[in-house]
From TrEMBL:
One of the record's GO molecular function terms: hydrolase activity
Positions of the HotDog ACOT-type domain: 53-171, 227-341
A Pfam family annotated for this UniProt entry: 4HBT
Cell membrane listed as a keyword: no
Region (Disordered): 344-383
Protein name stated in the entry: Cytosolic acyl coenzyme A thioester hydrolase isoform X1
Biochemical pathway: Lipid metabolism; fatty acid metabolism
InterPro entries (UniProt xref): Cytosol_ACT (IPR040170), HOTDOG_ACOT (IPR033120), HotDog_dom_sf (IPR029069), Thioestr_dom (IPR006683)
Organism: Mesocricetus auratus (Golden hamster)
Biased composition (Basic and acidic residues): 356-366
PROSITE patterns: HOTDOG_ACOT, PROKAR_LIPOPROTEIN
Keywords: Fatty acid metabolism, Hydrolase, Lipid metabolism, Serine esterase
């Protein structure tokens, strides 16, 4: 009876949120397949949130069997897509908070995202997003994901991420508009945000020029080599992949990238694999409806228990002869191999063959050692 009563209360809340959003046009941007709902967290009035820079939104939905990966947990790409959906809602709302040209926020970059704990089917995912910095043409959104067991009420943190958006004019989506500023409660918050903005801007530009190569297939590759596990997925961008303004949702692209990276990891170790973390995802250019995109993944580095996979997204505007194929996005995904009990397994060591592969291996090793040092510094007791 208690479970039945709790279920009724949950559905009543969802019904009320859906009704409220249909009346006000806020809180929920479409109840997709009747299972996605969202609401704003009324910590302050809208004027107060804008004045002090506390812009919040919380979305949530129950995890269903079609969200599962091979290991039975929620697919990492599904969580990335939910993170991006919350980010685009709050950033688009903020960028349209003042009178002026209407716009839509487009994802430009996702900072490193760690998968701290697996999320299970049947749990409710709560995604909380907050605007923490604005530059002249970009918005920083920090997102936390909590999983809730609705039978016991227990919650745990599963993901933290930082996303950057730019506002694009509805009249011309190639035009970037200015972002309404926020007021910070402390001066150091603005200074820290400016440092994060400059760092991500520099890295995003460096990554765009660094990732100019193409993943080429190799006939009869040897096991444990880069060529043996590299994979590609070709996808025709349709209306369901896009915003109302004709370019692809960032969350859709991230989910496809995670799928390709998972295939590479599974081919390499031939076991169940799960996403452990995602290094910065850089979106270099918009992907428009009607493009054919090629998502390519290749192994770059292996430690004893983890694998780093580079994923590149190239867009080919087949219906527009005036534009050539271009690099749309790039990222590094880290996966771990698990046994049937969900315990980490040793990873077969990658065998780099060419000079480029050896260089990418050393670069990946550097990123691995850098993140390992950061984790150790956080876990060591402070004097």
């Amino acid at each position: 009876m208690k479970l039945f009563a709790r279920t009724l209360r949950l559905w009543e809340v969802r019904r009320q949120v859906a009704s409220w959003s249909l009346v006000t046009g806020q809180g929920c941007l479409g109840l997709r397949e009747g299972r996605c709902w969202a609401s704003t967290r009324a910590v302050r009035t809208r004027a107060d949130r804008q004045k002090f820079g506390h812009c919040f939104i919380t979305t949530g939905r129950i995890m269903r069997p079609d969200d599962a990966n091979v290991a039975g947990n929620v697919h990492g790409g599904t969580i990335l897509k939910m993170i991006e959906e919350a980010g685009v809602i709050i950033s688009t709302r903020h960028c349209n908070s003042q009178n002026g040209e209407r716009c839509v926020a487009a994802l430009a970059r996702v900072e490193r995202t760690d998968f701290l704990s697996p999320m299970c089917i049947g749990e409710v995912a709560h995604v909380s997003a907050e605007i923490t910095y604005t530059s002249k043409h970009s918005v920083e959104v920090q997102v936390h994901v909590m999983s809730e067991n609705i039978l016991t009420g227990t919650k745990k943190l599963t993901n933290k991420a930082t996303l950057w958006y730019v506002p694009l004019s509805l009249k011309n989506v190639d035009k970037v508009l200015e972002v309404p500023p926020i007021v910070y409660t402390r001066q150091e918050l603005e200074e820290e945000g400016r440092k994060r903005y400059e760092a991500q801007k520099l890295e995003r530009m460096e990554t765009k020029w660094r990732n100019g190569d193409i993943v080429q297939p190799v006939l009869s590759p040897e096991p444990n080599t880069v060529s043996y596990s590299q994979s590609s997925l070709i996808h025709l961008v349709g209306p369901s992949d896009c915003t109302l303004h004709g370019f692809v949702h960032g969350g859709v692209t991230m989910k496809l990238m995670d799928e390709v990276a998972g295939i590479v990891a599974a081919r390499h170790c031939k076991t169940n694999i799960v996403t452990a973390s995602v290094d910065a995802i850089n979106f270099h250019d918009k992907i428009r409806k009607g493009c054919v995109i090629t998502i390519s993944g290749r192994m770059t580095f292996t430690s004893n228990k983890s694998m780093e996979i580079e994923v590149l997204v190239d867009a080919d505007p087949v219906v527009d002869n005036s534009q050539k194929r271009y690099r749309a996005a790039s990222a590094f995904f880290t996966y771990v191999s698990l046994n049937q009990e969900g315990k980490p397994l040793p990873v077969p060591q990658l065998v780099p063959e060419t000079e480029d592969e050896k260089k990418r291996f050393e670069d990946g090793k550097g990123r691995y050692l850098q993140m390992k040092a950061k984790r150790q510094a956080h876990t060591e007791p402070q004097p």
